[in-house]
Amino acid sequence: MSQSSKPLIIVTEDDRDLAALITTQLETADMDVQVCYEAAHAFRFLKNNFANLLLLDVHLPDDTGFHLIDDLRQNGIDIPVIFLTAEKAEDNKVKALELGGDDYITKPFSFAELIARIHAVLRRANTSHDTNVTKNAATTDVPFDFAGAEINPQRIEIAFPDGEVVKIGRKELGIITYLSNNTNSVITRKDLIHSVWGVHADVRSRSLDQYIVKIRDLFKQHDISLDTFRTVHGVGYIYETLKSA
Predict the structure, then answer these.
(1) Sheet holding 187-188: strands in order across?
(2) Are residues 207 and 180 in the same domain?
(3) For position 145, what pLDDT does the model report?
(4) Do 83 and 50 fall within a single domain?
(5) 181, CA 20 to 30 Å: which among 35, 118, 190, 207?
(6) pLDDT at 1
(7) Quick check: 75 and 47 in contact, CB under 8 A?
């Protein structure tokens, strides 16, 4: 396996000896590791970097693993999480899973089991988004109306009122889907980018604007003006479906 294809595992564990031992075992299993000894460190890292999986202790010096996973989910960071803790109480395990944890391993544990469970969670994570064409749109989504045209995510195409059916790009589908799901309110460029490309994507507003122009031009070619889809200068966009009184 090449260096670039190694999964990056975040180990959030305040026991430095155990963290070092886990790191050695994971690196031997051909994984990259980033160790965080505090919840705040892990949160900052994941806000700014992509990782494949988070190994998370329940008790950390500055916070709990429960609060950390809740903060991550509220900020749109859906990294797979395996809790790795000495807490054996069933209610803690239930809470961890209800908060979005993917597995729960109690100490002491064998490294063979830990690595096997990591591989299992990574496999599930890799296949769970197979139908996604962007961060927010999937080929399993049902068709919907956008400005009088029918958007078909299952076929990644638009059926216009003039009878023509046109294939569209994945990003255009993601943008239209987000606009359709957030009607009658101002959408910032940042929110739109994060929804379609993901929170860690390095996408500039200029690139987003180019996709918006492509959408407008496509609708204009079929005599749809998109007056209901307006730019809010300095902020973002709004797609209005409610008629003014």
Answers:
(1) 187-188, 236-239, 229-232
(2) yes
(3) 96
(4) yes
(5) 207
(6) 38
(7) yes
Q: pTM higher than 0.85, yes or no?
A: no
pLDDT at 76: 74
Please, which residues have CB within 8 angstroms of residue 161's CB and are 6 or more apart in sequence? 148, 149, 222, 224
Q: At what angle do helices 16-28 and 111-128 cross, to 10 degrees?
A: 70
What are the mean pLDDT values of the chain's consecutive 10-residue runs (245 residues total)? 69 96 96 96 89 94 95 84 92 91 93 95 76 82 95 93 93 94 94 84 80 94 92 93 65
CA distances from 241 to 184, 194, 217, 230, 236 (A): 6, 23, 20, 12, 17
Six-digit token string for 173: 């589908």
Task: Kindly state whether residues 171 and 91 are assigned to the same domain.
Answer: no
Identify the pLDDT of residue 235: 92
Residues 6+ apart with CB under 8 A from 189: 205, 208, 235, 236, 237
Residues 6+ apart with CB under 8 A from 230: 237, 238, 239, 240
Name every residue whose Cβ is closer than 8 Å to that of residue 90 and which is 6 or more positions away in sequence.
none
Ramachandran angles phi, psi of 68, nearest 5°? -65, -50
pLDDT at 130: 60
Q: Which domain holds residue 212?
A: 144-239
**Cα four-point dihedral sign 133, 142, 206, 79:** negative
Q: Is residue 136 part of a domain?
A: no
Give residue 96's pLDDT: 92
